[in-house]
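so my prof wants the structure for this chain in the tokens format not the other one, which i didnt know existed until like an hour ago. anyway here's the sequence
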Amino acid sequence: MLTLRDIKKTYYMGDTAIEALRGINIEFRKSEFVSILGPSGCGKTTMLNIVGGLDRYTAGDLTVNGVSTKKFRDGNWDAYRNQSIGFVFQNYNLIPHQTVLANVELAMTLSGVSRAERRRRALDVLERVGLGDQARKKPNQLSGGQMQRVAIARALVNNPEILLADEPTGSLDSENSMQIAEILAEIARDRLVILVTHNSELAQKYSTRIVRLLDGRITHDSNPYDASSEDTARKASAKEDRPKRKPSMSLGTALSLSLNNLMTKKARTLLTSFAGSIGIIGIALILALSSGMQDYIADVQKDTMSSYPLSIEQSTVDMTALLGAARSIRTHKADHPLDKVYSYDVMVDMMGSLLSESSTNDLRAFKEFIEDGGRGIGDYANDIKYGYPTQMNIYRTDTSGGVFRVHPSSLFADMASSSPMGTMRMMRSRSGSDVWEELLDNSELLEFQYDVVAGRIPQDFNEVVILVNKDNEITDFALYSLGLKDPDEVASMMRDVSVGKKISSEQVSFTYQELLDCTFKLVPSTDFYHKTGGQWIDKSNDDAYMAEVIKNAQDIKVVGILRPADGAAETFGPASVGYTSALTAYFVNAVKESQIVREQMDNPDVDVFTGRPFAGSAGSQPAALDPSSLPPDRQAYLASLSPEERAALLASNVPVSKSTYDENMLILGVADLDTPNRINIYPKDFEAKTQIKSIIDDYNKQMNDQGNPEGVIQYTDYLDMMLSSVTGVINAISYVLIAFMAISLVVSSIMIGIITYISVLERTKEIGILRSIGASKRDISRVFNAETLVVGFVAGAIGIGATLLLCIPANAIIARATRIPGVAALPPLSGVMLLAISMALTFIAGLIPSRIAAKKDPVVALRTE
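here's what i got, hopefully its the right format
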């Protein structure tokens, strides 16, 4: 079964060669109890280590079941120790931080035995050695004899063919020595047991064979064995018994060993992990603040984009050029003496810039481009709104107190007319200030920006909502404009102010239902005109007529009350009523379908308001002047003329309209949904706006390439200089701070590497024990790599936990100082990544110590105290 042929072992200490074994030749039976005796230093333990595969022979050959080990590699030796050999040492060599049961199970974890099977076999073998009730204890809770029996149980649990015992009774009293010898003798009934001992009496009593060594040679063998007499077929079959599966330690076992070891040094582990977490805390706090600010800016951007879109007007002026011309005033240098006052011409430059930089955009073609996909321009926008020259007229439903228009609001004009002050007269130009605005068509953004206080979001074209601020307030300007407060009070207040009288205002309130009960009337501009005697007369100042028009007009219903949502930026201005783009589309179509517009479109050469032809219009000539409409003297004069002269004179005196077709269409509010006069693009954020600009630039390039410079689009970016660099500045600061904190992270990782190396030194004997039961070099590396991973995980967890706790006071301080809530917020993904980075850095830091551990000589490691 086991044969040593001319085994030699030489150790080198510097230039000195020490021959420990000088040609050992011996064969062992498959089952016998062999005691090896001899004085100290005779080579007993060396021979045992070579048989057990812990040490390598210098010369000769060791054969197991007829298989030579000359060509064994590390993996073969590991499998051999794990599955064929069981070691029992003088000093027990149990792992102190593992329980008795875990110590016994350890060898089986390398063999790939299932957890349930390991537990069953370990308990069985512990029962066999009389320690079934001690399985949950740690080794330091046992007596010497009990620990040695645990060592025997560990050696037996994998059912090895050979049991090697190196002075197992050397540290025991006589009674325990007898018990251990009896156990070994019993084991030897079905396997080979080789015992190295100095106790010749014990050997004589229990051994079946005694071998004596002296100076590295066998001097006596009480029961020699020659395997050549056995059946060769048996040898051949024995060769198939060679272990084929190489042992491998699972990650769970490695983690268990490392975690149990770390738990024996809790204070050091926590301090080490805390030191490693400092860098994580710093980086996590920076990321929390940076991410929180980015989220806040993103929300502000999203809301701000709702007020400041990328605007494309039908007729536009490059305001940058105008501002440049204005700035030239400050840089102007005169070249005349200071003896007189000279004129400085700026109007020419500004008017030249205005003319040269003004342009007309083909919005019809650009709208088609957008609706055809626009190269994905819609993917970068929250909404794209189209404006039309049509003016919606909305009136209060109740006309009992007079006709009152709520949109466009005339409140500023009324205020100006009521005040003699020049400043208020200037407000006439602002008579278009309104409290009505079109909502974005992006329902997701709308729900993000607003909470529904009462009612619901508009669904039909004739539904609107009331917009209040975060305190459920609406401006008195809006209330007066909507007729919810008496507009006559405004004129009265203006008169009081003009004479220096102090005025006051009383706060009023409305229930939700009172606002939801409000209705308005939509009146197209075309309904202001009534056809009389073949002409269309403007009746907008006829209250009785307008009251009847309003009565029959389209209802506009308030269906909801919206309030800015928590976290959404609030732009609290005059706008207090929101409507949908469907209302705009309805109104445009209603105007186009009106009778007056159809008549004007059917007769483009005749002014529908006067019945006269447009000046210079093409088409048929209008009828000649009717003589009966002239005064008597003119009629007498015409009668004196010949028929030809009379006809020529009447034709030459036909009156023409002073208006034009386009002006009439503008007065009537006619628009084409395919031809907007304004396009507002609401980007999702600054990055999206950059993409939209790039798409427009590509579109312009395509227009130029096609020889169509008139198709080039000029746009106005109102936010280009406001917040565009904020994100970049925050990122730059974050990167710099992270770089500084990363230094501390690297330093702490190096420290963890040093701590791991110290752990290697402390666990050197454990390394030897693991190697003796078949653990490979890779398994040893895995144990210490697992330890660094555990430390890295704990460090990362402490860092993330501390950061989350620190975010609480940080948010309180920031909110108090800036009124910005919840700025510090660590994203979950960043937390996971930092945890992974912590583990990765500690793993890298532990690679060198774990490699050092793997390279340790198991024989030397076992001798370490």
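also thought this was worth mentioning. The two ends are 35 Å apart (CA to CA).
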